[in-house]
Amino acid sequence: xxxxxxxxxxxxxxxxxxxxxxxxxxxxxxxxxxxxxxxxxxxxxxxxxxxxxxxxxxxxxxxxxxxxxxxxxxxxxxxxxxxxxxxxxxxxxxxxxxxxxxxxxxxxxxxxxxxxxxxxxxxxxxxxxxxxxxxxxxxxxxxxxxxxxxxxxxxxxxxxxxxxxxxxxxxxxxxxxxxxxxxxxxxxxxxxxxxxxxxxxxx
Length: 203
Description:
With 203 residues, the chain is an alpha/beta fold. 45% of the residues lie in helices and 20% in strands. The model has no long low-confidence stretch (mean pLDDT 96).
């Protein structure tokens, strides 16, 4: 059986922290895994900035409430779920993801969680496990699933390498150039085509 493992931000929904940056005017919050390879380094920087500016979880959730999945994402995901099992593997947090999951008709998601105090300040974050996307792919392969994985950034590359077939969706050109072994889709029609080709190869 084939399972598709998809990144969330940049593939199905906008980048949450980028939108928080645009809403608050805090430019450094625009940095993502496209800019900083080490996720722990990136999150340490984000939490430091959030603390310095007194942002609360509610402030971020208010920005999230204004966001919607990318045009065509709901339809694409509905199509994919008819074709195979689908799992969202994301480095976002439960506290950010749930509103989007409702809009995407509640696909299964594996992500992280935040540590929030009684006043709503984000004090820390809890990773489910180190390198969770790759390890999830390998765990499902251990159950004899064939995995098609797709993402857009540095933090997806270990997952794409581990998968039976990896695909980039709208990555920065600089990242795609570093990993030429992965085909690149720039829209959902091309994404469907690459997934269909991957499924044929895995039969």
